[in-house]
Specification:
The structure holds 2 protein chains of 2 kinds.
Chain A (H helix, E strand, L loop, with lengths): L2 H12 L3 E7 L5 H13 L5 E4 L10 H12 L4 H14 L5 E5 L1 H7 L1 H11 L3 E4 L8 H9 L3 E2 L2 E2 L5 H10 L4 E4 L12 H12 L6 E4 L5 H10 L2 E4 L1 H7 L10 H19 L2
Parallel strand pairs in A: 1-2, 1-9, 2-3, 3-4, 4-5, 6-7, 7-8, 8-9
Helix pairs in contact in A: 2-4, 2-12, 4-6, 5-6, 6-7, 10-12, 11-12
Chain B lengths: L3 H4 L11 E2 L2 E5 L2 H17 L3 H15 L5 E3 L1 H7 L3 E6 L9 H14 L4 E6 L3 H13 L2 E7 H6 L1 H9 L3 E5 L6 H14 L4 E4 L9 H9 L1 H13 L6 E5 L4 H7 L9 E9 L10 H4 L1 E5 L1 E6 L24 H8 L4 E6 H15 L5 H15 L6 E6 L7 H7 L5
Parallel strand pairs in B: 4-14, 5-6, 5-8, 6-7, 9-10, 9-14, 10-13
Antiparallel strand pairs in B: 1-2, 2-12, 3-4, 11-12
Helix pairs in contact in B: 3-5, 4-15, 4-16, 5-6, 5-10, 6-8, 10-12, 11-12, 15-16
């Protein structure tokens, strides 16, 4: 069983919702990201999605785009993100780490080299937003051999036939995109999300988590009630935007960033 | 109709998932998958529908002004000193470039799909103008995404789009050029996917765009083939076209792919020179990767970030290239070469002064290489340049480079 499945199973047993924060690795710099990762775990994160910066993030809204631009300006790339995971693992061997990003950096590193290094440093899942299942078999197989989960998105526009194809290829958890649009947009109506999740439940036993547009305790609670958990990205990155690069942030500043996770944790635990 | 018959002989592609050999494909976020699948379905239907193609042909004839002439450039030929140089005059199309061949076709698709809103990305502004034009004609709302940098260097086209009723959206992210405009258009599409048709302007993007845009641009090569047989009594010995994303080049080349006697040259933007790194020539100096929905040759750094490109011509200033070109490069069917900014500028002036034709700076790259090539060939041989656009939009850029203000 993968680390993601273990954590999900344990949460399910305890009746606990999964809380998965997303941060861009290297925003505003790599040492700060490392501190934030530990702080996020302390404040209630069950897993962490680590954004791999890519110059052309065409599925992301303006907040994450700017985070990515800050990370790239600091020289962060896929190899350095993998090093960051290795460093995180020196102090934390239990929290699953999912790399989320775009395909080109992985293509350029090479699938085999990426999968091997990801496995060596302790990556648990990989989510490539511009790699649909029909194009994924090469990378998927290499990751599977190394017991790394490949996570896919399901969108409101995804047809039933496609849903079946996606769940057949997906492992770890299924990421339901709550709305038509890019990351950080306004939230879709609860009813249509509920119906979609209901439909997906009949197709898979995978934990279903909801992302895109969850920005505070209230939206986390609403979406958490419909699923196994939530992902919070843009709301965090918006707060990180106020930090300066150069590893200068105080503990208090970091606590301000992760406060959104702390309150979301409380909201989810009250369900 | 597209060249089905020719496809069946040798250079068939793409496959049902949009692959040209290892290139192409559908690398987009999940939200857009349903939209590209719908487009594939509709296009498969209409590509077999003679009525659709009859309407397309009718629009090309009566609205665009096709066929465009194949013109023997005698003074240019004499200046190059070798093979006869012919110009395929896409610059004479309505809106001034080949781009309209594609927007006419995609507008018909949008209409058939019941979409009420058109979006497009543009670099030099030619595709934006061609999109705004067809949107005006069909009474559709139109948003054109354009890099802030390109808005500066192509001001006349920006104003043309506004006159046509389009909203030009300035894109300030990334390198503020064509690639960033395309990212922004993809974001718009994901957000407004139900109402919106995205007219991609080149043979890139996710499947089925590289195929659709190619099929609509193949009118260039089909006419050239017929005109060559009628005017030269034979096929030309060589074809030359500039390659940014590669739509005018594929449109010219594709109907000749199985004619092994016809050599083909795709001319990329050499910028300051490929050896300087300041260029936009992924086929000359790039590696395969994935960007904007397809796998192709890209200008990318060792960490996988897309590099900023440079070209005097906004329309060629793109770090990727259509996946079919990537495949034709590997198959060695087309020779991909480049011309620098200064070579293109020289050719721009030569064509203007020798023939009274002001070429787009994009097309000037093809002129520059074709003159070099013609000089190595015999006088009884012939070279056809795809003169993809006219240069009215570039006169400010040229004046500025020469220290003048208009």
């Amino acid at each position: 069983m993968s680390r993601i499945s273990e954590v999900s199973a344990e949460a399910a047993q305890q009746g606990r919702k999964l809380l998965i924060p997303y941060v861009v690795a290297g925003d505003p710099d790599l040492p700060t990201t490392l501190k934030l990762m530990h702080k996020l775990v302390a404040d209630g994160a069950d897993m962490i999605e680590l954004g791999v910066p890519f110059s052309d993030p065409s599925s992301d809204g303006p907040v994450i785009q700017r985070g990515v631009e800050r990370a790239i300006a600091g020289g962060t790339n896929l190899a350095k993100v993998l090093d960051l995971v290795a460093e995180f693992r020196l102090q934390n061997s239990s929290t699953p780490i999912v790399l989320m990003g775009y395909l080109n950096p992985v293509e350029i590193m090479g699938y085999e080299a990426f999968a091997t290094r990801a496995s060596d440093v302790g990556v648990d899942g990989v989510l490539i937003v511009d790699m649909p299942p029909s194009e994924a078999s090469g990378l998927c197989d290499l990751l599977k051999e190394r017991r790394i989960d490949t996570i896919f998105l399901v969108a409101p526009t995804t047809t039933d036939t496609r849903c079946a194809q996606i769940v057949a290829n997906c492992s770890g958890y299924l990421y339901y995109v709550s709305l038509k649009g890019v990351t950080g947009a306004a939230l879709l109506d609860t009813e249509s999300v509920r119906l979609s999740i209901e439909k997906l439940r009949k197709m898979t036993d995978l934990p279903i988590v909801i992302g895109f547009g969850i920005k505070d305790a209230a939206s986390a609670r609403t979406m958490g009630a419909l699923s196994e958990g939530v992902i919070i990205g843009s709301a965090l990155v918006e707060r990180i935007e106020k930090l300066s690069p150069g590893d200068t942030s105080s503990a208090q500043q970091l606590a301000h960033v992760t406060e959104v996770i702390k309150t979301a944790r409380e909201a989810l635990d009250s369900l | 109709m597209p060249d089905m018959q020719q496809d069946s002989i040798g250079f068939a592609g793409p496959d049902s998932l949009g692959h040209f050999g290892p290139y192409g494909g559908t690398f987009v976020g999940e939200t857009l998958i349903a939209a590209v699948e719908e487009l594939s379905r509709v296009y498969e239907e209409v590509s077999k529908d003679p009525e659709f193609w009859a309407e397309y042909d009718h629009d090309l004839k009566y609205y665009v002004g096709r066929p465009s002439p194949l013109y023997l450039a005698e003074r240019l030929t004499a200046a190059a000193g070798g093979a006869k140089i012919y110009l395929k005059r896409e610059d004479l199309n309505h809106t001034g470039a080949h781009k309209v061949n594609n927007t006419i076709g995609q507008a018909l698709l949008a209409k058939r799909m019941g979409k009420t809103r058109i979006i497009a990305e543009t670099g030099a502004g030619q595709h934006g103008v061609a999109s705004a034009t067809v949107a005006a004609r069909l009474g559709l709302e139109c948003f054109v995404y354009m890099g802030a940098e390109d808005i500066q260097r192509q001001a006349p086209n920006v104003y043309r789009m506004k006159l046509l009723g389009a909203t030009v959206v300035s894109v300030d992210s990334g390198s503020r050029t064509l690639k960033d405009a395309m990212n922004e258009a993809l974001r718009d599409w994901a957000t407004n996917v139900d109402s919106t048709y995205y007219i991609i302007g080149t043979v890139a993007g996710p499947h089925p765009y590289p195929q659709i845009v190619r099929d609509f641009q193949c009118i260039i090569g089909r006419e050239t083939r017929e005109q060559s047989l009628a005017q030269l009594g034979q096929l030309p010995d060589a074809l030359v076209a500039c390659v940014g994303g590669g739509s005018n080049a594929i449109g010219m080349f594709h109907p000749f792919l199985n004619d092994s006697s016809v050599a083909m040259y795709g001319v990329e933007a050499g910028g300051d020179g490929v050896e300087t790194g300041r260029h936009a020539a992924p086929l000359s100096a790039g590696v395969p990767g994935v960007l904007h929905g397809n796998r192709t040759y890209l200008m990318t750094d060792s960490g996988g970030q897309i590099m900023e490109t440079h070209s005097v011509s906004a329309g060629l200033d793109y770090p990727g290239v259509g996946p079919e070109h990537a495949w034709l490069k590997d198959l060695k069917r087309v020779n991909y070469v480049n011309a620098t900014d200064s070579e293109a500028m020289k050719a721009f002036h030569q064509l203007t002064r020798l023939e009274g034709i002001i070429p787009a700076l994009e097309s000037a790259h093809a002129v520059a290489y074709a003159m070099r090539l013609a000089a190595t060939m015999a006088p009884e041989q012939s070279v056809v340049i795809n003169l993809s656009g006219r240069g009215d939009k570039d006169i400010q850029t040229v004046a500025k480079l020469e220290g003048l203000t208009l």
